[in-house]
Amino acid sequence: MKKLSLSLFALTIMSLPIGVFAAQQSNMTVTRTETAGTISEVKPDTLIIRSESSPNPVVYTSTKKTSYVNEKGEPVSIETVKSGLPVTVYYTSNGNQMVADKVLVHQSTTTTTSTKPMIEEKKINTTTTTTENPLGQKKTSTTTTTSKTN
Length: 150
Description:
By secondary structure, the protein is mainly beta. It has one helix at residues 2-15, and strands at 24-43, 46-51, 54-69, 86-94, 97-105, 121-132, 138-149. It has a domain at 31-123: CATH 2.40.50.320.
């Protein structure tokens, strides 16, 4: 009887996938960036922004999840977002597409000293690493890097 129990245990262990005993690791990098500029054009699913950092207008995709807020953090109606307004766009890169997560609409001010918008770009890279040990316990670590350019 003892040999039969040991044989069944050994057979059970041998039938488990080899990957159960090896640590599993996965990486996912998300880049969130913010860019300031002036709205050049607003289309149903697109914002076109002009900035000093780019000689050509930059196209951002807007979705139902894109939020529009003022400098106090209060929601702004999409109908009030129009050409000529200074904005800061917080976006996530998805391949070659830049998807706007949040658009901060600044108060429109008129100055005669400068017509160029102030540009500041901030990049935040987050890398999340999940490791699983042989017992199925998961350990997650996150590394965040921030850089600014003017």
